[in-house]
Amino acid sequence: MSQEASDPLDGEQPPSPDPAQGAVIVGVIPDQPVRVLKEAARYAKLLGAHLLVVYVDVTRFVTYEDPDGYVHATPIDVTLALGEGEFAAVKASAAALLDGHDLDWSARQLVGDPALSIKHLADQIDAKLLVVGTRKRGLGESIREFFTGAVAARLAHRQHRPILVVPLGEPVPDDQDIWPDRV
């Protein structure tokens, strides 16, 4: 198939492609160990792809989306600045790690459920790979994951792209139960 090039004299420019098209998406949260971002950057380089650093603000949810893709969000709480501050922290830590290296990257903030937001973005840009970290072990995290499900597991069941799950913290010894005693 051939694409028609627009005549520069007619004043119309062809739409510029999204630089994140075909990117490696990495889900990042504030104060997360840099191991997740380093692995995502390594795979983006190996695949010759853009790296898209994504932070999902779970304190807001999507109310509706315009046909042009603009998302209207509403805060669950009036502390809207909290999510913006966390996104700024994610961008700053990504810049500290990635700037100065031969890697094309950008950052985006999404809102709502992390698994569904990342899946929707991956569909929009036809992502090559999704990279997420595990949660730190602990009773609080185990209870949260029991009710909401791990982001990686939920992504694995809702889309077709490969997912790289980067373990955080120390591995659980073979003779130790992964799940703490539940009440």
Automatic annotation (TrEMBL):
Gene3D superfamilies: HUPs (3.40.50.620). InterPro entries: Rossmann-like_a/b/a_fold (IPR014729), UspA (IPR006016). It comes from the Bacteria. Residues 26-167 form the UspA domain. It holds the Pfam family Usp. Residues 1-23 are annotated as: Disordered. This is Universal stress protein.
